[in-house]
Write a structure and sequence with these properties.
binds magnesium ion; alpha/beta; 9 strands; 3-stranded antiparallel sheet; globular; 174 residues; binds inosinic acid; Rossmann fold
Amino acid sequence: MAETIRVLLSEEEVLKKVEEIAQQINRDYEGRELTIIGILKGAVFFTCELAKRITVPVTMDFMSVSSYGSGTESSGKVKIIKDLDLPIEGKDVIIVEDIIDSGFTLSYLKEFLGQRNPNSVRLCTLLNKPERRVKKEVTVDYEGFRIPDQFVVGCGLDYDQKYRNLPYIGVVEF
Ligand code: IMP
Ligand code: MG
């Protein structure tokens, strides 16, 4: 089945938003050090673009989790594929995600990383699909765009491992 991609957010709009989030983080963490944890693979471009614009001292680490198969529905289960390389005890941590959908991934990760006694844990996501939330208790601290319930790709997000490299956010039309 062939799919087409319709542009939802241009590269320019996305980068402008990344800059705004970075400025907010720079204000909030002034005088502190920050650990940002990018969730592979979807958040890799966003994490890097964000990190380039952060002016407080920042350490970067990555985790890989699986919550989706090859389809477009969340299974509700989260499995750690790759853990952090560095300890986070006593650190101020921001978990960076591409998108929050059901909320299973971020809810699980916040709890999982919270057990390592970081000083603080905040959540940052480029995209938020609030209509899809199952884990209603998950609060997002930094959010790029709220989008309707549509399946999107680009800026790290994939459909069956394709389209991650698109520099814009597009809606998949089947
Ligand atoms: P959640 O656990 O349901 O919140 O899902 C989070 C993960 O599902 C994200 O990190 C993405 O990998 C994936 N995901 C959710 N919605 C989309 C989408 O519209 N396009 C691509 N991936 C998505
Ligand atoms: Mg992801």
